[in-house]
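In this section we turn from sequence analysis to structure. A common task in structural bioinformatics is to predict how a protein folds when a small molecule is present, because the ligand can shape the pocket around it. The inputs are simple: the amino acid sequence and a SMILES string for the ligand, here S-adenosylmethionine. Study the lines below before reading on.
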Amino acid sequence: MTSKINFFKEAVKNLKIVGTVVPSSRFLANRMLKEIDFSKVNVLVELGPGNGAITKHILNRLPPNAILICFEINNCFYKQLLELKHPQLVVVKSSAEKIKEELSLLGFDKTNHIVSSLPLTIIPDKISKEILNSSFDVLENGGTYIQFQYSLSYFKKLKKVFNTFITLDFEPLNIPPAFVYRCKKVD
Ligand SMILES: C[S@@+](CC[C@H](N)C(=O)[O-])C[C@H]1O[C@@H](n2cnc3c(N)ncnc32)[C@H](O)[C@@H]1O
């Protein structure tokens, strides 16, 4: 409950960046992750982890030699994620459109999957386009970009990048209920 209250306080102060005042439910986290074959994951990226509502579920499923790289721009959430002190978690305080450069600095050029809770609709168009294009570039072939949204407003933009390889799912047990896009990279 404390983490929900902390999230609420920080989100209210930064609504234009956070995009919601309630962290995702475990039901939404499970729906986001359910089609990832974690036994084959080496590097997984999370964009917009907040205070870790989905991050915790990723870490619980990660095989021992794999790592999770999180991109978070909010200083308070960044510090909270560092406090998790998880040996397989790397937290980068950088905006998601820098994904390529930051992965390269860490010695990686590809990721198996990207899990995103970024509030795409309130991120300026130029930046959100950069985020989607760079995400596509760093995904390995066959990897997925998984994004939740509270509306269907981004479907067309995701289609421009991922073509027709997108499936749509829905999680009613979240506040508010959310759509989940799974976008597969097919070169
Ligand atoms: C809707 S919240 C999701 C938080 C958490 N993942 C959850 O599901 O409860 C969106 C998060 O994205 C972060 N964020 C917004 N724009 C970002 C960007 N350009 N790069 C990285 N993180 C960003 C916000 O600070 C916030 O923590």
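DSSP finds eight helices and seven strands in the chain. As an exercise, try to locate the residues that line the S-adenosylmethionine site and compare them with your own expectations.
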